[in-house]
Structure formats: C-alpha cells, structure tokens
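Intended use. Records like the one below are meant for learning the mapping from a protein sequence to its folded structure. Do not use them to infer anything beyond what is encoded.
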Amino acid sequence: MSEEAQEEPEVLEPEPESAVPVLFGRLLKRLRMQTGMDRAQLGSRTGYSAASIASFEQGRRIPNAKFIMQADEVLDARGVLADFTEGMEAAQYPAFFQDAAALEKKAVTLYFFAVQGVPGLLQTEDYARAVFTMWRPLLDEATIEQRVAARLARQEVFERKPAPTMSFVMEESVVRKRLGGTAVWRGQLEQMLLVGERRNVQIQIMPDDREEHAALAGPFSLIETEKGRRIAYMEAHKHSRLFTDRQAVRELEEQYSLLRAQALTPRDSLALVEKLLGET
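Structure written out for the chain above:
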C-alpha cells in the first residue's frame, strides 16, 4: 500500500484561515511525487518528520520561510514554492491581523497604546502562550503553538537595520496583571526592562491615579511606512480596521501625543517595573 493510501494518524492541527496553505500544500505534494520522493525522504532533506510533511501538504500546518526555500531547492521547483513565502507568512496570523502584520514588518515608526495585556511585540514566549491558552472560545494546542510562533516572529522587527522607532504606552494595570502566574509575570517584566534599554524603544506606563487621560476609548496602534504614509490600527472582537483617512489618523496621533505627556517618563516607567520585580 502506498503512503498516499495509508490512513494518516490523527494529528491536532489548526484550521487555516486562508486558502493559501491549502494551495501550497497541494503543489508541494505534486512536486514531491513528481520527483519520486516519499514524505520521509523530503523530511530528512529539510529537517522535518514525515508527519510534518503530511500536515504541510494537507494545508493544516503552516511551514516557515526556511522550509519553503529548502523545499523549493530540493524539489527543483525553480521558485514556484518560494513565491508562496509572503502569502504563507501572512497566513500565520488571524485574518483580521494580516494586513497590520504586513505593515508592521516594514514600518519606520510604530506606536502602541495597550489597556488589557502587554503588546505582542514585547511578549515573552511564556506570556504569549498564557494569553492564547486563556483565549475564548478555546484554541486547540496546535493553534496555540502556531499563534505563539507567529507572535515571536513579529519580534524580528527589533533586529531590522535601520531599526524602526518604537513607542509603547501601557496602563499600569497591564504591568501589574499576573497573567500566567507569578513566574511568567516576572519573566515578562524582565523582558520589558531589556527591550526598554534599546535606543530606538520607549516604554511608558500610564499610572492608575492620573486625573487626566487622553484615550479612554481604548487601545490602538499607529504605523508610519517608509514612504511616509501614516496609518492607524484598531481591533474589536475578531475584527479590525486600518484607518488611512488623514483626519482620523490625526485624531489618534493627537491622543497618543497627549498620552505620552500624561504617562510616566520612560525612565520612571522602567523604575516602576523594577520596583514591581523587587516586591516579589
């Protein structure tokens, strides 16, 4: 019996939110079979198990860019698989975040106002996993791991040259909230201290006792592209919106400017984080 006819063991994989992984998987399978390789052989050439190759081919798991480029070379695809890299990268994220993720990756300035949890770009792996584990409706384990990996991949923006200018303003309750438990919370605070030392990053905390607050309507992000285009991003339940209208973006830019003036300075904000660490 051929491997294609064998019943695959049940593997819990996330449901893709895009047709791109399915199309990629079908093409990957066709090219592999044309070369006469079985899944184990392709897996050994690319560093994956046969089960992982099956998941890629079925469109139920999203491979990273390294695998896509390796498979393109091993299967002599001549760039056909490599052309999927950008689409597969976007497919890692929930549909409502894909456009924002693409803009974020190439932005020259990024500003974030957070009111519930630590912004994704600052999250540790353990904190991100705790966030997705508590998600409702519940996410399966494979989806949790995929979302965690995608969130950590976003943090490659910190290593870009030239580095983007980044600012984070968070409510004090965000840094006091011990999501995932004390150990996870402490690790997250330590991560914030490390990132906050970067010259292109400023982290500010809005104290709970402030009598003035410029952004009571909720969280948002501001993005400036390399071409000088300014965009605002806001999320609601399973939905998001990118604002490009200059008036709408200007209003949020004004709110953010006031927030930065009302919040603790970056130095005092990091001092508060250190104080919280010292209390436990």
